[in-house]
Amino acid sequence: MKTPHQRTILWADDDPDDLDMMHEVLRDVDHNYNIVEVHNGRKVLDYLQAIKNPDDFPCLVILDMNMPVLSGRETLVRLEKDPRYSSLSIVMFTTSNSPLDQTFCRQYGVEMITKPPSLNSLQKTVTQLLNHCQEKAV
Question: pTM for the whole thing?
């Protein structure tokens, strides 16, 4: 449950193990964030469309590249086409290290982070992700 001092991260990933691990690492790194989990890009769009005040948007939207229903790529394209979402901080968080995927993300001005293989690396990556929320607050 979100407390008044928590900031929200909207995290789209279809792998429940990845989401569980991220919750655990985030709790260790910083308690001031609430993760809202969704399992595909359609749910990202539904969640954001339900928010009436743009000030209530999440400080960060994290998209997995490969998800069912609506992939991270498709979701990003739809978000970028809608001016209502122009202030969102978005990161693509994926197992891919494909140069084509990197080019796609650069084309949209979105950082692509490859999911790290170890828990120690994951903690550093979560800190890197949280920097996007802090940058938005400035």
Answer: 0.86
Quote the CA–CA distance of 129 and 107 in Å, as a whole number.
20
- Residues 130, 124 contacting (CB under 8 angstroms): no
What stretches of the chain adopt beta strand conformation (E)?
7-12, 33-38, 60-63, 90-94, 111-114
Angle between helices 72-81 and 41-49 (to 10 degrees): 30
Q: What is the pLDDT of residue 3?
A: 42
Q: What is the DSSP letter of 8?
A: E
- pLDDT band of residue 128 (cuts 50, 70, 90) is confident
Residue 108 phi, psi (nearest 5): -100, 5
